[in-house]
Amino acid sequence: MTSATLRHTIWILRGNPVTAIAATGALALCVLAIIGPSIVPYDPIASDVPNALQPPSAKYWAGTDQLGRDVFSRLVVAARLDLAIAASAVTLSFALGAVIGSLCGYIGGRLDRYVGRFVDVLMAFPLFVLAMAMVAALGNRVENIVIATAIINLPFYIRFARAEVNVRRNAGWVEAARACGDSHVSVVLRFLLPNVLPAMAVQVSLNLGWAILNAAGLSFIGLGVSAPTPEWGIMVAEGARFISTGKWWLVAFPGLALMLTVLCFNLLGDGLRDILDPRMRT
Amino acid sequence: MSQLAITARRAGWRFLSSAPALFGVLVFTFLLMRVLPGDPAVFFASGPTAGKEEIELIRKQMGLDRPVPEQLVRYLGDIGSGNLGRSLMTGQPVLSDLKSRLPASLELTFSALLIALVTAVPLGVAAALRQGSGIDHLVRFICALGVCVPTFVSGLLLIYVFYYVLGYAPDPTGRLDIFASPPPAATGFLLIDFALAGDWEGWRAAARQLVLPALTMALFVIAPLARITRAAMLASLGSDFIRTARSLGLPPGKIIVTYALRNAILPVLTIAGIVFSTMLGANVLVEKVFSWPGVASYALDALLASDYAPVQGFVLLMASIFVIVNLTVDVLYGIADPRVSVE
Amino acid sequence: MNALAAIAPAGRASADGPPLLAIEDLHVAFSTRGGTVEAVRGVSLSLRAGETLGIVGESGSGKSVTAFAVTRLLDASGRITQGSIRFRGEDIARASAKHLRSLHGAAISMIFQNPRAALNPIRSVGRQIADAIRAHEPVTPGEARARALGLLKAVLIREPEKRLDAYPHELSGGMCQRVMIAMAIACEPALLIADEPTTGLDVTTQKTVMDLLAEITAARGMALILITHDLGLAARYCDRVCVMERGRVVEEARPATLFGAPRHPYTRRLVAASPTATSTIADLAVSETANPAPEEAKEPSPLVGEGWEGGMPPAERGRSTVTGMQGSQAHGGLTPLSLPRGGREEPDSPATALRPAPNQSPGAPLLLECQKLIKRYDRDIVAVAGVSLSLRAGESLGLVGESGSGKSTLSRLICRLIDQSEGDILFDGRSIGAIPARDFHSSEFRKDIQIVFQDPTDSLNPRFSAFDCIAHPLRRLLGMRDGAALSGRVRECGARAGLPADLLERFPHQLSGGQKARVGIARAIACRPRLLVLDEPTAALDVSVQAVILQLLDRLRREDGLGFLFVSHDLNVVRMMCERTIVLQNGAIVEEGESGRVFHHPRSDYARTLVAAVPHFEAGPAA
Fold it and tell me: Which pTM was predicted?
């Protein structure tokens, strides 16, 4: 089964170069997040004022910022923090959302209608504003960025799990499982969730990108991560002051890092959809 | 006639059903005011040197010594009577601050939505009609890329290109050049006010200031709009009733517009509502990048200055706008789709 | 009934003159990622003005593809590779898009399966009919509306003025099909093509729609091509019938000849497998099974909704989305009459199979008793309204009714999958109605009552192999652990259901419709239940697959002394399978009695209407 999945995955990747590239990129990002700080050429925090605001060169691949810090080194080191925030937020909302969503979807009835309605309403709310206010209320700390991002992601997972379970709850094989002696709980845990999780995994990948953008947006406006720490959103915010004077690299490179990261996870999500679809397997 | 009645009833029901969410937001903002680090009474005191007695007095005046439920009721009463407190930064009542800044935010958001819809819907339709062609690939590329670029980055890069490199755009600060004179205030929407006054030079100046921020925000939402348009149009074109229309020899234009597009508009409408509220959130970022004097940048400045009354007012304002947007979408949907009465 | 008189075979079609439509050596191919696949290979047929031609065949026979090729409405991936389609003498296989548009609706119209989906959901039916008129005739909107009203009257829609402004969702399925017919005949085309026009409609609705279609084509001198999987329907309404198999026409004749004395072996099998008013289970299969090739996994092709043989890589099969030219009846395999490897599928000896009912005596103990069962859903919808019934051990009880009659709800109540609102259910004399459905999984009776579901695809967990599906109740209900005993038992159950051991490792998407049905049956009998509830077990299958599955079920019942509660909308099937039959309408029993009596001498009006609506053909001596 596992080797079949692996073979299938390789088969898919071969026929789907875009997904293969995205997967490689995502993997590289994760590796970078782990080993990044030990391979960078310069200290990402120590300032070197004489070399401030250097454009990109062979010495400083992505130029230097207003304190003379190497932008490239800061970019690489920041990967860990950005990915960690997004990953923990998404994990939190995924776990909660899957459980709440599938229970609502399976139980149905009034509870489901109320939860569904509430989630719909919440999703239509300007979520970034909500996250902003939450960070303000809970305190300007990284943990709270994670919590806020997790909460604004939650409705998507609840809705998704709910919809996926809902279309399956009356399927013949669910009723058959009950006729074969499974209780409701066992049907949800052993039958519905395994069928729903692949689709949710796709959602996770797509959402990871969104979570990264949200977290970066929050630090761009000055919430969460604070100044000397290398983080993509803050780097853009600091660079913003110099854009009118043409110091483009301060914004462009962290922006590019954000964009490529999100692109990788989005494309990977699209590819995962194909790989995890059991009907594709032969 | 009855369709209208059904739509009205549906909209009313939806309004009621968003009431719990609205109440939730109220409680949330209440907690925001209460839970925040520090004592609210301290903020409202005359200054950092205020004596203990003065703070105690303010505490009494604000009702902070009462039990929490009673405070909540009083708080709701205050909100109901339009008392959102006073901003520490500006020294003005929050309500009047918000009132004076809201048009700037709305003008920006509406222009961006207009640009986005005018671009995204034709792109999505074209991609669906020529599935697999060059334009389809282009649209899908734009969609994939568009959702990856954060607004604050695209905004800054637009400034770099159009202001610094090309010099087409004016100094990206505010709604109007410092030396230009504002139009007589009628609606607060500069483009409309200038037009009403017949001052076309001023109108152009305001438009030039508006283009970049509006474009930035539009870029952010073109991708989801084009994506859903393409998907909805493809689903619509592949459906049985299009086959029926073809089997009856209907003209292609009629099939595409009256049959396919009319049906595809429904999901686009739903997404447009969500997109609009996303844009309200993105306002925070765009207004900061372009120093746009709207409600979002006002709230952000207040937040960073630990001035919480404006933040609370802002969140409530967003909640009300969001209820209005939802209602509008519901009414439009009810008009566009006769099936809603089935529910 | 004068409609029937009007379409008396061979009456009105003029025998001389050039044919209206002449198809010669038509080949249609679909390009898939796995290569090109031929769905139609060399079809030739002709049709005279005013004639009604039936094209019958099972899924994958290419009958719908032929129709869509004639109207040039094939998917983008399908194209005519060879042959000509002459309509009034000119070849439309190569006509320009513009020319085709002038023919569509004005000269050739189509009527589709699933009428509700075929209509634009957000445009009133009056405007849709007007669109059809104005596409070909320069009339004002007012005139078009007036003519639309006339057409609604012509298709016998009640209160046509009101319906003019109705939307499709406000009309029933049968009404939608009438509107579709009105649109199709709006510009008086010379040729109507009806692709499974009544599949999915109730049998009484089917009759009214088909009678209307026959009447209209007769009155207006239109030629009709009726594409159907139902031999009875073709026999009743067509002047001539073509039988298609795997993209070819294998036989063509007048209905009486074709069904009375079929010549081609495939036609013979098809005719034999179709239940008639008098056939028995044993009649359903011919002993001279010509083609004992193994039944292989042949999925319906997603591209046209119909399957074809081979050509596509396995990965391709389940992958594409169903574009749905023909959705519902497409689950069967292609060579369903053939024997599965390992399984034995010989017809039972005539002695045991001629009559149902041999092995239970009136004295057998009551196995199941329902007392005044009532099931209410939200908003006071009553699905089951006070049903009392009883079933003796080893007896087979049929439950017939149209959609909305509550038969599926009743079967789920009896299986204890849902709770009744009122009433009680006794099993073996003990009340199982008192056990909430949510706790029934741990009841000792759980293994005694099992169910076989309608849609074989839907009833199997896509992530379980066939083996796991069958082993599931053994693990759960009998507490069997993985090991030789379990796999032995699974293999035994599989073999009894005609499932060769080498198919057990496959996943549902790798099995054909018939094989999936067998997995579902093997799972249901795995724990040796005493009562088997069969909820339309063959409704999604082709008629020849249905035949073998019915024989299999009948044999299992005899071998195990099972009690059957057989739920179906197909009256002939129920009559063959069951000793006693209950007719349900709106959740209540309207008639109950010995099957033969209910079908041949129905007492209630409703049962009479039902029986009269079933299209029959006379089974000939060749069966």
Answer: 0.81
